[in-house]
Request: fold
Amino acid sequence: EAPLVSIRFSGKWRLVARDAFNGVRLWERPIARWNDHLRHFRSGPAHLPRRLAVFGDTVFVTDGFGGPVLAIAGATGETIREFAGSESTEEILVTADALYLAVGTSEANRRGGGLHRRGEPEPTSFRSIMAFSRDSGDLLWQRDCSATQILPLSMAVKGDRLYYQSATGITCLNAHSGSELWVTP
Reply:
């Protein structure tokens, strides 16, 4: 939301929930730090579509850029829980029992002096996959992937397997323990 007098005015970003049947606004929450609305089309960040996921009537979303992942009641907008240690999450996947997060910067070697002026956080020195219990918020496992450079939007989970693509190949992990099952170039 922004003043209509000029496109150059900064907007106030909000997460808005609407009734799927009639479009009535149910609730809204401010987003403190988000992407610049003047950024060129398809100039990224590529991970924006993976910062919100829904399971049942719970919304899982990052609290802006750099913020932790929150579980929000879909009907009321109230915070159910904050997932401790999930700051700098770029991707969220949710299953019946777990929440899988790609945490840390996917664009560690990005260039362009204008990025920090657009409100994006500085690149992190780490990259990991974290798994949390969806219901309790407890950390189940964490895997350091700083050396493998996980590609944006490549993480997928099915059954008891979690997959991701890196700059060097495809890796399959046990979704329950985080242990590596196989890697292929």
In short: The radius of gyration is 17 Å. Residues 70 and 119 are 20 Å apart (CA to CA).
